[in-house]
């Protein structure tokens, strides 16, 4: 395929599209609420009313407001319907023909939507993720062509480095520097892995990107492969994401058909193929070295570093590992330039970040916001605040993160600021808690998760998380003493400082952050338990 053929496909697809497009969300969340049947009913209504010449019903990816699904959006009028029911589906089409509908209209200008800046999610909810032609029609694969025909591998890497893009999987390491490390390795076999093993409770960002715009990830991987000299890539996705896997399989097949993956891509001496590896849902396999072990067919255990995967990874070869959202940023950066991207966000945290906003909040779902936006803007303006009551805390970073109190809602959302208050960016989970939430129970919940997900290889994590859970349970059962509280904190730091990998190193974070900001809740439980044991305590405890 040459560039003109790519443009011809785009033009043909635009000519195929009708003047009115009815977008029906068919991602996992809305499918669970019968959106596929709703879409079928709307398609039948188009035929019944004879509107095929101007109305087109399209199954699209996630529109973001997951808590209000199923969602239907109509272009070019920008009409949004939410919580659509099967019995209202046909009437939505009838309303386009002058009729009426009882479907609930949403507000597409609501702060939940209008405060977002969509780079990765620019086309999600607008294109059919199962048609490569629709992706090409919005400029898809043009960045790949531009990179391999008009830029050298080092120029591609320099562009990504100058953009300031940092890994979106949690660690926040410079993407360009990671690429450069792999590129500098001696010539020979190099691999690439897209980490889609999204396991944080409450997180579903990567799943939605893969379901809604799989070609964006494939294009980003191909550009990265060209830059570092890799010819074989793997996408590691957990088996709990069947729709993402299905759409990835279809996308890879379509890209091969058009010569956008495989041999001599765009008639250049550049070969790159992608295979899918399905994980069994082990949280530990989100850690780079454990993920590599799993891809190789072994038990997903972490191994000591160095050597780092960039030096010796998959089957002992240099391996580039980035997560889904990181790869999804690549094509937009190549298309619009490093300076454009670097002007978004803060000094040390560039671009946008996708968050799964969940918990005790009115508006939940997926949001993509510029780095530097405050937690208050996200929770109170976009999220609409807590339905009944006040915000007590916001937990970011999943089991590796921390709980930030309401008094610190003006904290900017960027890598440095979140770290300074005892939390972290993580992959993008954001859970809102109200005044009824017990922060000790929150700490216990995350520790229960971590003790069940530890691989068991190192003693601090294997036994430490179990002991931490036991201490938290003892406190909640009002059987603990002040000595137990001291042990809880000491053991948290021990596990944090001596564990082999990131799971153990960060597992105590929810405990430490709740001890720091909500210690009185622990003390109240201790006071009661020590009173029950016949002891007298004071508020000084």
CATH superfamily of the largest domain: NADH-ubiquinone oxidoreductase 51kDa subunit
Count of helix runs: 24
Which class best fits the helix and strand makeup?
A: alpha/beta
The side-by-side strand order for the widest beta sheet comes to 2-1-3-4-5
Strand content: 5-15%
The third-level CATH topology of the largest domain is Rossmann fold
Number of strands: 14
Shape: globular
Low-confidence stretches: 536-541
What's the architecture of the largest domain, going by CATH?
3-Layer(aba) Sandwich
- Considering DSSP H and I runs of 4 or more, what fraction of the residues is helical? 40-55%
First CA to last CA: what distance?
Answer: 72 Å
What kind of assembly state do the chains in view correspond to? single chain
In total, how many domains does the architecture comprise? 4
Mean pLDDT: 94
Q: Which CATH class of the largest domain?
A: Alpha Beta
Rg result: 25 Å
Major sheet characteristics: 5 strands, mixed
Q: How is this structure best described in words?
A:
The structure is a single chain. The chain is α/β, with parallel strands linked by helices and 541 residues long. It is 43% helix and 14% strand. The chain has helices at 3-16, 28-31, 35-48, 89-96, 111-114, 132-137, 142-150, 153-163, 175-183, 205-212, 214-228, 242-257, 288-295, 324-328, 330-336, 338-342, 375-382, 415-420, 439-453, 459-476, 482-498, 502-506, 509-517, 519-532, and strands at residues 20-25, 55-60, 72-75, 79-82, 104-105, 191-196, 232-238, 273-279, 319-323, 352-359, 365-370, 391-396, 402-405, 429-434. A five-stranded mixed beta sheet has the order 2-1-3-4-5, covered by helices on one side. Strands 11-10-14-12-13 form a five-stranded mixed beta sheet. A hairpin with a 3-residue loop joins strand 3 (72-75) and strand 4 (79-82). Helix 10 (205-212) runs parallel beside helix 12 (242-257) and helix 21 packs across helix 23 (509-517). The longest helix has 18 residues, at 459-476.
């Amino acid at each position: 395929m040459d560039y003109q053929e790519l443009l011809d496909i785009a033009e043909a697809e635009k000519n195929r599209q009708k003047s009115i497009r009815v977008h029906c969300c068919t991602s996992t969340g809305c499918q669970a609420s019968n959106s596929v049947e709703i879409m079928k009913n709307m398609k039948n209504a188009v035929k019944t009313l004879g509107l095929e010449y101007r109305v087109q019903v399209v199954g699209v990816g996630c529109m973001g407001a997951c808590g209000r699904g199923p969602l239907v959006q109509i272009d070019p009028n920008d009409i949004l319907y939410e919580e659509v029911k099967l019995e209202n589906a046909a009437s939505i089409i009838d309303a386009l023909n002058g009729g009426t509908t009882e479907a609930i209209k949403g507000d597409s200008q609501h702060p939940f939507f209008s405060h977002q800046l969509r780079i990765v999610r620019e086309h999600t909810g607008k294109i059919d993720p199962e048609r490569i032609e629709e992706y090409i029609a919005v400029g898809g694969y043009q960045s790949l062509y531009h990179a391999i025909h008009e830029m050298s591998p080092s120029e591609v890497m320099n562009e990504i480095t100058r953009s300031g893009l940092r890994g979106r999987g949690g660690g926040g390491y410079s993407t360009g520097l990671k690429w450069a490390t792999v590129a500098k390795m001696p010539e020979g076999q190099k691999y690439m892995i897209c980490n889609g093993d999204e396991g944080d409770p409450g997180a579903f960002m990567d799943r939605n990107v893969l379901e809604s715009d799989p070609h964006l990830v494939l294009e980003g991987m191909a550009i990265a492969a060209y830059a570092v000299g890799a010819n074989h890539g793997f996408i590691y996705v957990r088996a709990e994401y069947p729709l993402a896997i299905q759409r990835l399989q279809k996308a890879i097949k379509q890209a091969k058909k058009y010569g956008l993956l495989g041999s001599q891509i765009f008639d250049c001496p550049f070969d790159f193929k992608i295979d899918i590896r399905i994980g069994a849902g082990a949280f530990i396999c989100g850690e780079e070295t454990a993920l590599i072990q799993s891809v190789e067919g072994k038990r997903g255990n972490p191994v000591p570093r160095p050597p780092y995967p960039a030096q010796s990874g998959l089957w002992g070869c240099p391996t580039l590992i980035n997560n889904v959202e990181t790869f999804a940023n690549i094509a937009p950066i190549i298309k619009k330039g490093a300076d454009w991207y670097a002007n978004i966000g803060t000094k040390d945290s560039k671009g946008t970040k996708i968050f799964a906003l969940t918990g005790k909040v009115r508006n939940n779902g997926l949001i993509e916001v510029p780095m530097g936006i405050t937690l208050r803007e996200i929770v109170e303006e976009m999220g609409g605040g807590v339905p009944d009551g006040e915000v007590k805390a916001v937990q970011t970073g999943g089991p590796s993160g921390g709980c930030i109190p309401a008094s610190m809602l003006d904290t900017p959302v960027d890598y440095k600021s979140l770290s300074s208050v005892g939390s972290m960016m993580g992959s993008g989970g954001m859970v809102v808690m109200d005044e009824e939430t017990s922060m000790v129970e929150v700490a216990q919940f995350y520790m229960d998760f971590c003790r069940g997900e530890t691989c068991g290889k190192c003693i601090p994590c294997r036994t430490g998380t179990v002991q931490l859970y036991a201490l938290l349970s003892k406190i909640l059962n009002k059987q603990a003493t002040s000595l137990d509280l001291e042990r809880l904190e000491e053991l948290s730091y021990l596990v944090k400082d001596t564990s082999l990998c990131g799971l153990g190193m960060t597992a105590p974070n929810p405990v430490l952050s709740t001890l720091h900001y909500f210690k009185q809740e622990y003390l109240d439980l201790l006071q009661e338990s020590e009173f029950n044991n016949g002891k007298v305590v004071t508020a000084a405890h």
